[in-house]
Amino acid sequence: MRSIFVVLLALAASVGASSVVTESNVATDHAIMNGPNHMVTKRLLRTETLPEEEEERANFEFVKKLKNLLKPKSVAQGVPAVIAKESQQLQAVAKESQQFRTVAQTLAMDKVKLPKGIKKMLDAQASTDDVAKALNIKHGEPIANLFRKEVLPTYVRYSELASKKTITPDIYGIGSLRKEFTDIELSAIINAGMKSSDELTFAAADRLRAGQFDDWLRQRTTPHDVYQLLRAGGKTISDADRVNWRKYLNKFNALHKG
Description:
about 260 residues; mainly alpha; 2 domains; 15 helices; about 60% helix
């Protein structure tokens, strides 16, 4: 019976751990899914073997039934996708775009002055599609060129100012950028910008990342998919993105709880 107790104790611990929403529940990276914690549980269950095969067979069904009883009814691996009361909630979320900004206090973007031509477009309330074309924001352009002051930083500043006039939820013009870049391409561009030591480059990338999170929320993109998009083909995500991903997970669950 002492051996059974050890097995049951380990089983309860492993089942309890599976009910917690963590990165490993959502990410599909094999390095995460097959990490040390997973192996520790397997080793723990193999620590002691029952002395008699007959006793092992006799207790197997009991252990199996107990595991089913302890198993949580729902694990956030698939994350519920129930659509509910969204219009007002999503509008409120759009107004809270700064929640995903890691350095909201930076003044670099506020100091960006729009060129005369772009200022005229602002006065005429031109679309971000037109502004993106005017600034030559296009697929295949080197990332360093995209983050020059007169390109993405100017585009982000224009979108910020224009959104105050049009009251659009897409504050940072992500919708227009997604017409030119795939989600993964845009994520990779933003990831590069957020690694920059240049304050303006970082500020522009920071706002674009906030815009991505808002856009994903409006599109009902699952936290699992968001995590993969943040990786953009890499092995992991940054600490700042990890913090914001957890915020996103909570927001998503709140909007889509059944």
